[in-house]
Specification:
Length: 511
């Protein structure tokens, strides 16, 4: 039997004797049937500290809370690991953290609720490790684990739910500042995200919120003003394959995405049409008035179905919204009935058979048969970093596309985070966090950046200079592209208007 080995750099620190941690390298030989705790037990350093009872650590920046099989972990993280505590700032001894220090920041909250039993107060310790899953840096932030603890208390004390919800609705440090955890957690799960989303829905859902006129009621009200069905539209005289979705947030610069999509489909001789679609709600759509959100999504799908076309989404945000809405509509006869009544005055009817597609999926699977790539790609020797995978349960994989283009693409973990949704919640924080991940990508030495999201384009291109200033870094004008622009470049297109490059804030200098 061949010897199986892990190369592990281990976070080592002793708060009593050291000022800074070290990351010594060690080799651990393992057996195929081992689990994570077996590896930890065989770390060849004296007095290595970790919590064997309540497991919690990071492997390559991803949080692990389960004693998983080593074979599964190797498949996910390969055989080169960096082991770290969940929060280095609370490190006590190696992977062990100072639980007393972590809990001390919540003493005022516990004192404000003297009716909680000792057992209920001690329950908080089971949640605090969740605070450290994401890398978002925000001084004073209450913590994702704390929000989940409050949610647990709300279920135990329904008559006090309003007060508990108020305690996490703070305008600077509360639950509305949450950023998705799922990409920094293994095994991957939406469970924690969904639980915190439920709290956000309570605050943004207007009259349904137990706190009248709360700080965040304006989010739902602003959304309600943006939903509007367009006047009756004339369908195309001939059959087309796609209706391009264009119901984007007016604040965002959708011109580069839509123009490059038109040009690419035309280049590929794919028939399409553009009619006016309803605004899809953006990030906060599903958190506000669900009837308006589903009505808008139902309208767009019904419009495409009426003309016999597939509704084509060109960015990840809008596609994720449509998937979410279609699942609700298709599984709920009650919602279907409500939406049919809303659509009837517009001469439309929702059909579960309505088809939709995601342009980046088509590009990645070569469904569109992208002939014409140069045998010696113009991207040979160039590299990029891809921002995407924020909202989809099964993110698209682009390796085959990048291989065909001879383009080296970095897909770092930090690029799976987006802070665009925080613009309406805390603009300076949104800009600083976006600048942070933008410069992390630029510092990889890439030639340009890629995104699958219009909202991320808004952050990393339109607002990039403003974000650089807040981040206190000299602005770097490294440009950002959408995948249809990338495909057009690979097909030899050089006209900046055709590519949609003429409206970018950061000029593209590759061609």
């Amino acid at each position: 039997m061949s010897i199986l080995k892990l190369q592990i750099r281990v976070f080592r620190f002793d708060a009593k004797n050291q000022y800074n941690p070290s990351y010594p390298l060690c080799i651990v030989e393992y057996l195929p049937d081992w689990r994570l705790k077996d590896v930890l037990e065989h770390i060849p350093f004296p007095d290595f500290g970790y919590d064997a009872t309540h497991l919690g650590l990071k492997i390559n920046q991803v949080a692990i809370f389960e004693n998983l099989p080593i074979s599964e972990l190797v498949e996910r993280f390969s055989v080169e690991w960096v082991l770290e505590p969940l929060a280095a700032e609370y490190a006590l001894k190696d992977l062990l953290m100072d639980e007393t220090a972590i809990l001390s920041q919540y003493q005022s909250f516990l004192q404000s609720a003297p009716f909680l039993t000792a057992s209920e107060q001690s329950e908080l310790a089971k949640y605090t490790n969740i605070n450290f899953i994401t890398p978002k840096k925000q001084a004073g932030y209450y913590g994702d684990g704390f929000f989940l603890y409050v949610r647990w208390l709300m279920n135990r004390y329904p008559t006090r739910a309003r007060d508990f919800l108020q305690s996490i609705a703070h305008d600077k440090y509360g639950v509305m500042h949450f950023v998705s955890l799922k990409n920094y957690l293994y095994p991957p799960s939406d469970r924690l995200d969904e639980a915190i989303y439920d709290l956000q829905k309570m605050l943004t859902h207007g009259s349904a919120c137990p706190i009248a006129n709360n700080t965040w009621a304006h989010v739902g009200k602003n959304l309600a003003l943006k939903y509007a069905f367009p006047p009756k539209q004339t369908p195309p005289s001939t059959q087309v394959a796609f209706l391009i979705f264009n119901g984007y947030e007016k604040l965002f610069n959708s011109a580069p995405l839509l123009q490059s999509t038109r040009a690419l489909l035309s280049r590929l001789k794919v028939e399409f049409v553009e009619l006016t679609c309803c605004f899809d709600g953006g990030y906060w759509g599903r958190f506000g008035d669900l009837e308006k959100f589903l009505g808008a999504q139902g309208y767009n799908l019904a419009l495409a179905h009426q003309i016999g076309a597939t509704l084509l989404f060109c960015d990840e945000d809008s596609y994720a919204n449509a998937l979410y809405a279609k699942k609700i509509l298709d599984e709920s006869p009650e919602w279907q009935e409500k939406i049919q009544k809303i659509l009837a005055p517009h001469g439309l009817q929702y059909h579960p058979e309505a088809q939709m597609a995601y342009l980046n999926d088509l590009l990645s699977t070569d469904f569109l048969d992208l002939e014409g790539f140069a045998s010696h790609s113009i991207f040979t020797g160039f590299s990029t970093a891809l921002f995407g995978g924020y909202h989809l349960a099964q993110p698209t994989h682009y390796n085959a596309l990048f291989d065909r283009l001879s383009l080296k693409c970095h897909t770092p973990l930090f690029a799976t985070q987006s802070y665009a949704h925080l613009l309406e919640i805390d603009t300076p924080l949104a800009l600083k966090q976006s600048a942070s991940i933008r410069y992390e990508a630029i510092d990889l030495g890439v030639d340009f950046l890629l995104t699958t999201s219009l909202s991320q384009f808004h952050m990393l291109d339109t607002l990039a200079q403003k974000a650089s200033k807040l981040y206190q870094r000299d602005h770097d004008n490294t440009s950002l592209l959408f995948l249809p622009q990338l495909a057009l470049l690979a097909l030899g297109e050089t006209n900046k208007q055709t590519l949609g490059l003429d409206t970018h804030a950061n000029p593209f200098s590759f061609i």
